[in-house]
């Protein structure tokens, strides 16, 4: 019986009609934007015209994201994984899961950070991009080897080799000039009498000797 009209009889549905209206005995007619649930004759499910990616269709053309996902600002029916903190040099492919870009590998100290990979060890420098070495301060790129950095000496290292920034290591048979840190003098043993030591254990006589 219709409570508003005693002369009108309404159909009875044994179970409440969810998102629809009881239009005949135990028969539910779905509201606009809903479709009959094949598993439950008195239940109507919302219809989304596009698939709800990583979420659930909870109302007509309305997608509710799964836990760990948030709405794609470019597509209302797509849910994107959330990574916190954000993924450095990679892509967030699942909640708090970072997949590294090509040429990068996972940082063992930080699961959300990807570090560049250099196929050869970066000597006296740091791998700052895939197969790219950035030299430490006081070093410059070796023209013969892109992953090797050579020390820079602001003055030439005479009779020696530049082994660290502004540091000269003398060749065998030479010792550091006490007046010039970047100059190496030949050593004569014993010392040269009435002459000058011009090469290791080589004496050049003074004029008149």
TrEMBL record:
This is EGF-like domain-containing protein. Residues 12-45, 47-80, 82-115, 117-150, 152-185 form the EGF-like domain. It comes from the Eukaryota. Pfam families: C_tripleX. Transmembrane segments: none annotated. SMART domains: EGF.
